[in-house]
Design a protein that fits this description.
The structure holds 2 protein chains of 2 kinds. Chain A is mainly β. Helices cover about 0% and strands about 45% of the residues of chain A. Chain A contains no helices and 9 strands. Chain A has strands at about 10-15, 20-25, 30-40, 45-50, 55, 60-65, 70-75, 85-90, 105-110. Chain A has a 5-stranded mixed beta sheet with strand order 1-9-8-3-4, with no helix packed on it. In chain A, a hairpin with a 4-residue loop joins β5 (about 55) and β6. Helix content of chain B is about 0%, strand content about 50%. Chain B contains no helices and 11 strands. Chain B has strands at about 5, 10-15, 20-25, 30-40, 45-50, 55-60, 65-75, 75-80, 90-95, 110, 115. In chain B, strands 2, 4, 5, 6, 9, 10 and 11 form a 7-stranded mixed beta sheet that branches. In chain B, strands 1-3-8-7 form a 4-stranded antiparallel beta sheet, with no helix packed on it. In chain B, a hairpin with a 5-residue loop joins β5 and β6 (about 55-60). Classes of the chains: A mainly beta, B mainly beta. The interface between A and B is medium-sized, with 23 and 26 residues.
């Protein structure tokens, strides 16, 4: 599975847009890029998934450049409740193999 | 989306005893479930892959005789921590995939079980 690199931590204020970039230089052709959110003492929660270009849902956008060696999770107008750890994962999701988690990015949102 | 539950949500046991944690897929059948362990301030670490009707596949460094996994049905996998010790205290999380899903290929996680060994 492709290894990912993301910032250890980020700080933001309520109402701001937050962009978290993840590097995955050795991503394979069949790999998807998936982002999960985790609050303390809870299981991870799916945020968004993409293969290429841009994907948007009701909570976030995912930008993937043409070479797919990186991706950026964009959270519009964050609130205090968005304080959490965000994980970027890369893998052949269609194959049904387990997700391997990296260190994640701890996002702290202040008022 | 699909729901995965775990029971119990937290458990305290004495050193040397065994503890069983259940993972259930509530509204779908899961031929494969995954077990993770998470220590404080750390990421999730994959322990094993649980396959319905066959033996689990353990990750390197995980003692299969200590962490017994049984996937007896398409909706239930259990993790038994045998002869628990304080160093086994951790947050245990299971996950599952729908076998014939479509994109996005989402892996559903349970709420986790906090194990404290005294």
């Amino acid at each position: 599975l492709a290894k990912t690199t993301q910032p250890i931590s980020m700080d933001s204020y309520e109402g701001q847009e937050v962009n978290i970039t993840c590097s995955h230089n050795n991503i394979a052709t069949n790999d998807y890029i998936t982002w999960y959110q985790q609050f303390p003492s809870q299981g991870p929660r799916f945020i968004i998934q993409g293969y290429k270009t841009k994907v948007t849902n009701e909570v976030a956008s995912l930008f993937i450049p043409a070479d797919r060696k990186s991706s950026t999770l964009s959270l519009p107008r964050v609130s205090l409740s968005d304080t959490a750890v965000y994980y970027c994962l890369v893998g052949d999701n269609q194959a049904g193999t387990a997700l391997i988690f990296g260190k994640g990015t701890t996002l702290s949102v202040s008022s | 989306g699909a729901v995965v539950s775990q029971h119990p949500s937290w458990v305290i046991c004495k050193s040397g005893t065994s503890v069983k944690i259940e993972c259930r897929s509530l509204d779908f059948q899961a031929t494969t479930m995954f077990w993770y362990r998470q220590f404080p301030k750390q990421s999730l670490m994959l322990m094993a892959t649980s396959n319905e009707g066959s033996k689990a596949t353990y990750e390197q460094g995980v003692e299969k005789d200590k962490f017994l996994i049984n996937h007896a049905s398409l909706t239930l996998s259990t993790l038994t921590v045998t002869s628990a010790h304080p160093e086994d205290s951790s947050f245990y999380i299971c996950s599952a995939r729908e076998p014939w899903d479509r994109a996005p290929y989402e892996q559903y996680f349970g709420p986790g079980t906090r194990l404290t060994v005294t």
